[in-house]
């Protein structure tokens, strides 16, 4: 039996170890700080952003690597206060939620003190604005992928609870090894209706509706390729697709690393009830039609189209116009003419990736110098069109000096999520921004993380095809594996 004195020594050793941990942590309170007439340099740059109530805490680090401690006091303009002290601003989730809820339509004021080389420094206060508009979706989905250029690898489709820091895999590459999947495309944030493309030896189109999966072969004798980019009709019966032959070329000695382009593409609609493709001669031309998207009421199909060129040699001549055609879901028929909303030849720009707001008011799209794959264009910006007046403008407060792409809307159409390479020009990272009634964007904020500097500076993945989801996606990954590798795909037909 262990003697009392041995137990005492062990307890003493444990106590000393705990004291050492506490003593080494940052628990100082600012005393007589030196005031600096400037705002603190923090990572991420959350100064002046507009946020929704109940979002995950916008924790931040000092941009200075060499600090001893950080002390932050947050006060609500209506009520409430938080105080944190440590290596970075790490707010309790419940306390943060309570403070943002108390200050809906108001402001949060941050007082930051930083201890460096044994001296406390106090900075000018900065603010965040708590929007009166909610963002009650469960979270966001995205494809995490290293910025490489091969099929397979460590690719995964993930979902993240935006009210906490919980991330989970929807489908990881280990479930379908050797295959490449794109991010699932949901029907207006509906976690129960979505599709995704599989590329590789067992490629196909996965359709998921109401808990049921089916795996389709979507190339026919009447179409040029398998389906690719997609967008759901609001009633969930139809899904629009483009059929593309996608290629990539690499640059040497220029600021741009890669160009992704098509050698042909068309647009069509799949009736998911019958597995039939509904074609239209106006969308099956020798021009390159791509990026279809249904309007909020489902009566209009937006898409992009370009005149063919000899690519890749003439890659910088390819410019896409933004067009629309009517669609009748009751009869499954198209209109008899195409309207051009933005003419690439006249405006000498390329307009791609249209995404209509769910309230029917706006159309957000990418503007680049050329091409149809904006994520690889440093000049890619987000623009907004008023669908009632046709007026357009850049979202200047959301854009940056680098790439903005892969944008999608919240259900109330007052928030949008997108990928941006503003951090380093290489990795696409997830941002959320507010949009007011006049179509003006607030300053975007990087998707919050518990320790953002550690997470994002050590993260080696890009975030692509990011979108909101109203509930957590419950996909049976075993069933996906079975359908992919049993290779029992259903062949679609032409209506």
From TrEMBL:
Q: Check the record and name the SUPFAM superfamilies matching this protein.
A: DPP6 N-terminal domain-like (SSF82171)
Q: Which Pfam families does the record cross-reference, listed alphabetically?
A: PD40 (PF07676)
What InterPro entries does the annotation carry?
A: 6-blade_b-propeller_TolB-like, WD40
Q: Which residues form a coiled coil?
A: none
Q: What is this protein called?
A: WD40-like Beta Propeller Repeat
Please tell me the species this chain comes from. Answer: Xylanibacter ruminicola (Prevotella ruminicola)
């Amino acid at each position: 039996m262990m003697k009392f004195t041995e137990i005492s020594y062990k307890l003493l050793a444990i106590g000393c170890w705990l004291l050492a941990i506490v003593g080494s942590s940052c628990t100082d309170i600012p005393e007589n700080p030196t005031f600096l007439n400037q705002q603190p340099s923090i990572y991420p740059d959350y100064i002046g952003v507009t946020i929704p109530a109940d979002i995950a805490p916008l924790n931040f680090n000092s941009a200075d690597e060499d600090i001893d401690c950080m002390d932050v006091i947050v006060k609500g303009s209506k009520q409430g206060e938080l105080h944190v002290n440590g290596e970075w601003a790490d707010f309790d989730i419940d306390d943060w939620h309570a403070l943002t809820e108390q200050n809906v339509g108001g402001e949060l004021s941050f007082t930051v003190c930083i201890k460096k080389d044994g001296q406390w420094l106090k900075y000018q206060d900065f603010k965040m604005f708590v929007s009166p508009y909610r963002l009650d979706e469960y979270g966001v989905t995205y494809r995490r992928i290293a910025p490489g250029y091969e099929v397979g690898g460590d690719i995964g489709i993930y979902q993240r609870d935006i009210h906490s820091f919980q991330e989970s895999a929807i489908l990881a590459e280990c479930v379908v090894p050797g295959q490449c999947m794109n991010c699932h495309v949901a029907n207006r944030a509906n976690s129960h209706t979505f599709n995704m493309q599989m590329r590789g030896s067992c490629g196909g189109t996965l359709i998921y509706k109401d808990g049921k999966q089916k795996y389709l072969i979507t190339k026919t004798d009447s179409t040029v390729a398998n389906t690719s980019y997609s967008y759901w009709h609001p009633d969930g019966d139809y899904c629009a697709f483009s059929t593309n032959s996608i290629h990539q070329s690499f640059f040497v000695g220029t600021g741009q690393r890669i160009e992704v382009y098509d050698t042909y593409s068309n647009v069509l609609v799949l009736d998911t009830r019958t597995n039939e493709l509904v074609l239209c001669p106006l969308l099956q031309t020798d021009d390159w039609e791509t990026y279809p998207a249904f309007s909020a009421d489902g009566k209009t199909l937006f898409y992009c189209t370009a005149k063919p060129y000899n690519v890749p040699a003439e890659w910088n001549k390819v410019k896409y116009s933004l067009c629309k055609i009517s669609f009748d879901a009751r009869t499954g028929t198209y209109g008899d003419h195409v309207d051009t909303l933005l003419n690439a030849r006249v405006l000498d720009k390329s307009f791609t990736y249209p995404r209509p707001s769910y309230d029917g008011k706006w159309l957000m799209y990418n503007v680049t110098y050329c091409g149809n794959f904006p994520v690889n264009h440093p000049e890619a910006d987000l623009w907004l069109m008023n669908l009632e007046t046709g007026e357009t403008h850049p979202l200047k407060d959301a854009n940056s000096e680098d790439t903005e792409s892969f944008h999608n809307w919240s259900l109330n159409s007052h928030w949008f999520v997108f990928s941006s390479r503003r951090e380093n020009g290489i990795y696409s990272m997830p941002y959320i921004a507010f949009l007011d009634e006049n179509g003006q964007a607030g300053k975007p904020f990087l998707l919050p993380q518990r320790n953002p500097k550690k997470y994002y500076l050590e993260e080696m993945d890009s975030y692509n095809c990011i979108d909101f989801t109203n509930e957590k996606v419950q996909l049976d990954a075993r069933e996906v594996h079975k359908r992919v590798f049993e290779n029992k795909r259903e062949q679609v037909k032409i209506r």
